[in-house]
Amino acid sequence: MTDSPHVVTVTAENFQSVVIEGSYERPVLVDFWADWCAPCRMLMPLLTGLAERYAGRFLLAKVNTEEEQTLAAQFGVRSLPTVRLYKDGQPVDEFMGALPEGEIREFLDRHIPRASSGLLEQARTSIAEGALEQAAAQLEQARAEDPENNRIALLEVELRAARGEVTEAEAAIDRLPIELANDPEVNALRGRLRFAAALVDAADEATLRARLEADATDSEARYQLAARAVSQGDHATALELLLELMKRDRGYGEDAGRKGMLAVFDLLGGDGDLVARYRAKMMTALY
């Protein structure tokens, strides 16, 4: 096994004290395994390595079900390996089988705050408040303390965008770890970058409105006004402008009106009254 202080062998005699009572102090990950189980042997070094890298933020408790058959039966273990997470005296989640390390990390991170989580929240607040140098320092500290946290890279993209480095931010988002490819926060960030790019060389709002009043077919002015509305948090106005653009000029920007509406939906988390209303309007206009 291991001499690590973060990994212990659990028996029927100490399960109550180590797992149940211990989980009030920190999460306890219980690995029910057996020597004859090949997936168990594959999983064991991954769990041990993660226990070391998480440095005490959870305790790995190993239960040899060959030696502790009564304990395994008592806790309803019917498949090996079974890995169960306990917090505050209760099982809160589990998985079965030998998952890849990345999926195990995702499992753990749903329940165990990372060492850098507080710094990332501080950095997010700093970006929102415009304290960009402070945010950069917080992200640098987070990376030094927790270099394997993929969400640091995501906040670094947001920082670039806040600095107006739109091209660099777009390139950086394409380099994000594959595990974040379908993350809702990444999709929302892609949407913000789409609209930020549209404003790089755009005229001021008054000029754009004057252009649109003079020529209702000015698709560029309509789209850039929508982008300004997004930057101001006025998503309803943005969606109305984009819907009208989609109705009038599907060719502009390779269907920028429809794609822009989808980007705003992502910004809004994909649900809510505003999203439902404009999704219905979009479908009606399309079909």
From TrEMBL:
PROSITE patterns: THIOREDOXIN_1, THIOREDOXIN_2. GO terms for molecular function: protein-disulfide reductase activity. The lineage of its organism: Bacteria, Pseudomonadati, Pseudomonadota, Gammaproteobacteria, Chromatiales. Residues 6-113 form the Thioredoxin domain. Keywords: Coiled coil, Disulfide bond, Electron transport, Redox-active center, Transport. GO terms for cellular component: cytoplasm. GO terms for biological process: response to stress. InterPro entries: Thioredoxin (IPR005746), Thioredoxin-like_sf (IPR036249), Thioredoxin_CS (IPR017937), Thioredoxin_domain (IPR013766), TPR-like_helical_dom_sf (IPR011990). It comes from the Bacteria. Residues 125-172 form a coiled coil. Belongs to the thioredoxin family. This is Thioredoxin. The keyword Ion transport does not apply.
